[in-house]
Amino acid sequence: MIDLVITILIGLGGGIAVGSGLVAFITVLGIIPRLAQLTNTSKAVTKYESAVIIGALGGAWMSLGDPALRLPAFFTIPVGLAAGMFIGLLAAALTEVLNVFPILAKRVGVAERISWLLFAIVFGKITGSLFHWLYFYPMR
Q: Where residue 77 falls among pLDDT bands split at 50, 70, 90?
């Protein structure tokens, strides 16, 4: 019984630490307001913040169990596309806030060809994602 309580406390503590780190990361860097500014939807900042909070809570709740939603592909494809777009926009806002690409281009020595650097990153991400899905989730 004591092992179960200790496991619960460790899991709860780890979840609070990771969640707090994520919230601090998003808040300190101002990712959501910058994302809203880039997409010209500044009036919807509170909706973005609510969506992130609801998504984090929903993801945490779902990770406690072993959910299996057996939905047809025409339901899961739009959800996957929306999740991918959100992650892409979040990453774009992060790189915009931190000015990652100009700094990386200067350090690598390809400042005059920054568009090539961007294409390499995009194609690398696409290739990695396709490899992941085709290797770990092959069609049956």
A: confident
103, 120 contact by CB (below 8 A): no
Structure token pair of residue 57: 């809570």
pTM score: 0.48
Q: What is the mean pLDDT of residues 68-77?
A: 80
Determine, yes or no, domain membership for 137: no
> Read out DSSP for the chain?
-HHHHHHHHHHHHHHHHHHHHHHHHHHHHTHHHHHHHHTT-GGGHHHHHHHHHHHHHHHHHHHHS-------HHHHHHHHHHHHHHHHHHHHHHHHHHTHHHHHHHHHT-GGGHHHHHHHHHHHHHHHHHHHHHHHS---
- Name the residue range of residue 20's domain: 2-70
Say if 108 falls within a structural domain. Answer: no
Answer yes or no: is 99 within a domain. no
Q: Is 43 inside a domain boundary?
A: yes
Number of domains comprising the chain = 1
The structure tokens 């592909």 sit at: 73
* Token duo for residue 8: 């619960």
From the list 83, 82, 73, 93, the residue with the least C-alpha distance to 137 is: 73
